[in-house]
Design brief:
The complex is a heterodimer.
Chain A lengths: L1 H4 L2 H36 L3 H11 L3 H18 L1 H10 L1 H20 L6 H31 L3 E3 L5 E3 L3 H4 L2 H25 L2 H30 L5 E4 L16 E4 L2 H8 L5 H19 L2 H23 L2 E3 L9 E2 L7 H28 L6 H7 L5
Antiparallel strand pairs in A: 1-2, 3-4, 5-6
Chain B lengths: L3 H42 L2 H35 L1 H35 L6 H30 L4 E4 L4 E4 L2 H5 L2 H32 L3 H36 L1 H7 L12 E8 L4 E8 L2 H7 L9 H27 L4 H10 L3 H5 L13 H9 L5 H29 L7 H9 L3 H15 L4 E3 L3 E2 L9 H32 L3 H4 L16
Antiparallel strand pairs in B: 1-2, 3-4, 5-6
The chains are: A mainly alpha, B mainly alpha.
Chain lengths: 384, 523
């Protein structure tokens, strides 16, 4: 059993799954923080309302954000070429995300340190940007990943990206950006109805019920684009050595209009995943209406997970296709770390991930309960 | 590939963002431990003054922590953004400690820092104290893993170049973790962080005592800071020596440059207390040498010599020639992956491959290098000596000054009479010293590693991303602007919080257990 787990092919598959787990973990936790940030100007108008909204995520956003940092570290460790290529390729987009995310911790901590309304309004803007901009850009990045980005490798495996920032802002990628934004706004609204009291929760309920339907429709629309052949996929044509060296120059890949549906056609059971990606947000919409707050949040979480999983399943085994040199695309079998590193990292994950989930769960339990204007007022300067 | 403006800008950006990030990290490292210690005293004695101290220093900790977190995000992604070839080349080894840092440290500190601030009324004192310690533990673990990663760049153990994947791959992960350079750096760096926090607490307390404000809180803080500070400062100095010791095995060139030791001296070598090193003359003018000391520090012996720069350059030249053999074999393997003869040659010479890459500064194919180019490449392994020489001495001077300050402070706190006002003024004036020492120390460690990004394995100038110069200029300008604004805001908030002092409501607060579960987040 252990031997089986540790052969190179299995390790690569496990790390492909863990990559998905990390992205989903990030979107399902920090996603609602970003959603709350993006919703801040709309659900909360007075200072007291804003503090309610902010303090629903006050104690937890920091831990949630670690999913993002860990995502970076784990991609670096398990998929070094992907890390090198995507972050240098999406250079200026990444820079914008970083600026937006740098503003966020500071805004949380500093906003309520001074009573001056202009001061607070400025930080509220920072929180809005820190939520909305990454939510949009992450979607744009996924869109470009689906579409393929122009890059190649030199013989020394030096990654060379050939595109520009504006090349990333194509209609299809922007469409994916909207899916992501709608999805995370819904997720943030679900959190707010679950955690906040009063007007803030009411407004979040109204917005969430609508954005959930939009999420479902936009995601389904993406599926239509793929099936109409408007979004071509990439298909590996050479024989694959699943335990071969991580060298992306050895295989051949072609552009194929139907490639992103091939896995679903080959394994019809997989259709459950996109189906849930469409229905779970609708369930969340119904939950908003029915005021089943806990269920709404869970449905939204399920939707987030299934939408992200759909992208991964559609592309498998490709990780990042090259539009200019398809054969240089990164795939699960040729962009990973060495077998030893994948094994070491798996051991570390098996030890620490359950611990993380356990103490994170405990912290959420300690903080259980609604946040309202009275409670924030009572906490005074010590709340955000 | 040889766009040196791009390389210089990438280095500038890394230096700016790392130095800036490292303004906040040391204070976080030490202050987390200090407030955990204060809270422990509170839990043991139940005297509310200690809880007030925990909360007050906690507020300052929080203001500082926010920027440490914010600027740390940049660090995690900058390798991929600006150093793509390095990321590909080293990710198999270097990425793992970074990921483990996230798993083991960041989650711990970030999850519990929220509860530290928001959990006062939701947790029993004992449980809250545990939360504080876990947060401090997480913070310190993160230093461990990032320094394991950094230690590997200084001394790349447990790994080998794989010609099939064209990168370094791990061969012995335990060797990477227990890398002596990494371990020495960890202890040295966290101790420096403790010194930084102790100096901060000492200085702020001294300011209160000079003005006769919050005397009870300030006095106790002064005592705990001077004791903690003295222990940490001694640890920095003693274990700084340990870093020097490790250098002689792994980074002889850095040591020779720090000491401006151009020629190998007969053992035991003398220590150059002062002098004016000249890179062009390749000697140190006006040197004042103390016999024996360097040999004792560097080799822990009286009979082993320490290699000088000239000898190390000659050594580098030999490795370059062997590296060219490895490069040639690698090119043959790239042309024909089944060329077993080339693989045999490569296996025998691959540890010098990085030295051949130094020649790429002058020409695309190292095999065509002229004798002069080989000699130039060998000399390019010498980092710029004067900066290292003076930087190191500045750092050491700050360290000794702080140790003396803590010693005098501690001595006065054990006496009945009031400590003299000049001591408080000295504590106030000393506040910038740990930051100067720490930033200069980072510079000595990383600039001293040049021209390598991974010592002996990959030259820095090959490691960047294929970006445009305008991209770099744009992001450097952006980071500088945002970081500058945040620095101003941070310092103003910090000063405001210090001026305001501890929460008066807390000071008169009694032991009343606050168990109202409906009560909301309170710090």
């Amino acid at each position: 059993m252990i031997e089986f787990l540790f052969d190179y092919e299995t390790l690569r598959l496990i790390w492909w799954i863990l990559l998905g787990v990390l992205l989903i973990g990030f979107a399902a936790t920090d996603g609602f923080d970003m959603g709350v940030g993006a919703l801040l100007p709309f659900v909360a108008r007075t200072d007291a309302e804003r503090r309610v909204a902010i303090n629903t995520i006050g104690p937890v956003w920091e831990g949630n954000q670690v999913w993002f940092i860990l995502g970076g570290g784990a991609i670096f460790a398990a998929w070094p070429v992907l890390y090198a290529l995507s972050f240098s390729g999406f250079y200026l987009a990444m820079f914008l995300v970083l600026l937006a995310l740098i503003m966020r911790p500071v805004a949380f901590k500093y906003r309520s340190k001074r009573p001056d309304p202009a001061w607070r309004t400025r930080w509220d803007w920072a929180l809005f940007v820190g939520g909305a901009v990454p939510a949009l850009i992450f979607g744009v990045a996924v869109g470009n990943t689906l579409r393929g980005v122009p890059f190649h490798f030199t013989a020394d495996l030096r990654p060379v990206y050939e595109g520009s920032l504006f090349g990333l802002l194509n209609p299809l990628a922007l469409y994916c950006g909207l899916v992501s934004l709608a999805m995370l706004v819904t997720h943030g609204a679900a959190w707010l109805t679950f955690k906040a009291e009063g007007t803030v929760a009411d407004r979040a309920r109204t917005i969430g019920a609508r954005s959930a339907v939009v999420t479902s429709a936009l995601f389904a629309g993406g599926g239509v684009l793929v099936s109409l052949g408007l979004l071509s996929g990439y298909r590996v044509t050479s024989p694959v050595a699943w335990d071969g060296p991580s060298n992306p120059l050895i295989k051949t890949v072609v552009v194929d209009g139907a490639a992103w549906l091939a896995n679903f056609h080959a394994h019809p059971l997989l259709w459950i995943v996109p189906a849930l990606g469409i229905t779970a947000p609708l369930l969340a919409a119904a939950g908003f209406q029915a005021r089943l707050e806990g269920w709404t949040f869970l449905a939204s979480k399920l939707g987030v997970a299934m939408i992200i999983a759909t992208v991964g399943l559609a592309m498998f085994p490709i990780l990042l296709p090259s539009s200019s040199n398809p054969s240089h695309s990164l795939a699960v079998f040729d962009a990973s770390s060495s077998r030893a590193t994948l094994r070491n990292m798996l051991l570390a994950t098996v030890i620490f991930l359950p611990l993380i989930l356990a103490y994170t769960g405990w912290v959420y339990r300690v903080l259980w309960g609604k946040v309202g204007e009275k409670s924030v007022e009572k906490a005074g300067s010590s709340a955000y | 590939m040889s766009d040196f403006l791009l390389v210089d800008l990438s280095r500038l950006q890394f230096a700016l963002t790392a130095l800036y990030h490292f303004l906040f990290v040391p204070l976080t490292l030490g202050l987390s431990i200090l407030i955990a210690m204060m809270e422990t005293v509170y839990v043991m004695t139940r005297r509310t003054i200690w809880r007030d101290m925990t909360k007050f220093w906690g507020v300052l900790f929080g203001i500082n922590f926010a920027l440490g977190v914010a600027t740390g995000i940049t660090m995690e992604f900058q390798f991929g953004m600006n150093w793509a070839y390095y990321s590909h080349y080293a990710g198999d080894v270097f990425g793992a400690p970074l990921a483990i840092e996230g798993l083991m440290a960041f989650f711990l500190e970030a999850t519990f820092v929220g509860l530290f601030f928001f959990g006062w009324d939701r947790l029993s004192p004992r449980a809250h104290m545990t939360v504080t310690w876990l947060m401090a533990l997480g913070t310190n673990f993160s230093a461990l893993w990032i320094l394991i990663a950094n230690g590997w760049m200084q001394n790349p153990v447990g790994s080998a170049f794989n010609p099939d994947t064209m990168r370094m791959e791990v061969t012995d992960f335990m060797a990477v973790i227990f890398n002596p350079v990494a371990q020495a750096k960890f202890v040295h760096t966290v101790s420096a962080g403790y010194v930084c926090a102790a100096t901060f607490v000492l200085g702020v307390s001294a300011w209160y005592l000079l003005r006769g404000r919050h005397v009870q809180l300030a006095k106790r803080s002064f005592v705990i800071a001077s004791a903690f500070g003295l222990a940490s400062a001694l640890s920095v100095i003693v274990l700084g020596d340990e870093s020097g010791y490790a250098l002689t095995d792994n980074q002889k060139m850095k040591l020779a440059a720090i000491e401006a030791m151009w020629e190998t001296e007969p053992a035991p070598a003398s220590f150059t207390a002062f002098g004016i090193p000249s890179q062009s003359d390749r000697e140190t003018h006006f040197a004042i040498r103390i016999p024996w000391v360097m040999g004792l520090i560097g080799t822990r012996s009286v009979d082993r010599p320490i290699a000088g720069i000239d000898e190390l350059v000659a050594h580098a030249e030999a490795r370059i020639r062997n590296g060219i053999v490895a490069y040639d074999a690698l090119e043959k393997i790239k042309a024909d992956r089944n060329d077993t003869a080339a693989r045999t040659v490569f296996d025998a010479s691959s540890r010098d491959l990085g030295y051949a890459l130094l020649l790429k500064r002058y020409l695309a194919d190292p095999r065509q290098a002229s004798e002069q180019q080989i000699k130039d490449a060998a000399w390019s392994t010498v980092p710029y000596v004067p900066l290292l020489f003076f930087g190191f001495r500045l750092m050491v001077a700050c360290g000794f000054a702080l140790a003396a300050l803590f010693a005098v402070s501690l001595w006065h706190t054990t006496r009945e009479s009031e400590a003299p006002r000049w001591l408080f003024r000295a504590a106030l004036i000393a506040m910038p010293l740990p930051w100067i020492a720490i930033e200069v120390g980072w510079f000595v460690a990383e600039f001293g590693r040049q021209p390598w990004i991974i010592d002996g394995v990959l030259p820095t100038f090959l490691a960047t991303s294929e970006l445009g110069v305008t991209d770099l200029l744009l992001t450097i300008a952006g980071f500088t602007l945002v970081y500058g604004v945040l620095a101003v805001i941070e310092v103003r908030l910090m000063l405001a919080a210090i001026r305001k002092g501890p929460d008066v409501a807390n000071v008169i607060d009694d032991l009343r257990p606050s168990a109202d579960p409906a009560m909301q987040p309170a710090e």
